[in-house]
Structures are given as structure tokens and as C-alpha cells.
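Lab notebook, bench 4. The sequencing result for the construct came back, and we need a structural model before the next group meeting so we can plan mutations. Quick request posted to the team channel:

Model the 3D structure of this chain.
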Amino acid sequence: MNHRPALVASIALVVLGIAITPAALAAKGAPSGGGRHGGGGSGTTGGGGSLSLVMVTDLNGNGTPNWGDTVTFNVSTTATTQPNVSLTCSQNGKVVYGAVSGFYVGYPWPWTRSMTLSSTNWSGGAASCVAQLYYISGTSTVNLASTSFTAGA
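Done. Here's the predicted structure in C-alpha cell form:
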């Protein structure tokens, strides 16, 4: 069973700028797994994969992610040829940012791998963020690794 059309449709919504509602992301539930909190970006390894945060743009030059900065991820896995990363950021328990991108050759929207930490629901302030490395297998989502960080104000 090929789930690529559903993933493509989901990514198209993000690319077109249609916001993922906080309620929809909250219903998904928080990914399991730990990670390093704070600025850096060393990720956890599990289930055949690893994930680590990489700064793309650092507006204040402090070397850690903050609101308005752009981040991406180093991804490594032998479990699949089509790994994806979802990033969810929350303030006071409310989801204020959500993004998903494919991290594999042939992914049709490779520019979505760079994720800018802001949204219409997140106009500033610090947020707790969790990135999840996963792939789709049949009708299941298989989580491989996660990393957590705080995006500063």
C-alpha cells in the first residue's frame, strides 16, 4: 500500500502556507523519546536512526535556536530510504509551530527541510520543541529517533 500521496498532500498544505491547527497537532500527541534540552541539538538514537539539530540561520549569533531562526536536521538511518522529520514547538502546552519534511533523495520539496521558528500562532517568546525522525510503513508510523530543544525568545 503506497501512502506517498497522503504524505505529499500533507506537505503541500505546509508548503502552500495553510497552517496546521494546534488542535490537530495536539491530537497527534507528543512523540516519545528524549533528547537534549537547551540550545544544542544532539539527538537521541533509537530504532535504527539518529537525528541532530543544525542551525541554518542564527539571527543573534548565539549559536542556539531562537524564535525567528531557521533550523534543519542531520538525519541518519538504515531502517528506511524515505525518512521524514516532524518538528513541533509549544508554549505553555499550546502548539504554536508544526512542520514536516522528507529527508531523502527525490523528496519533491527539499527546501522545506529548512524550518523557520515562527508562525502566525508564535509571534515571539521561548518555546519547547521536539523533532521526531520517522517513516511510514503500511498504515503505521515508525518512530526512529527524537531530539528536544528550547527555542529562545
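The CA atoms of residues 33 and 146 lie 6 Å apart.
Will bring this to the meeting.
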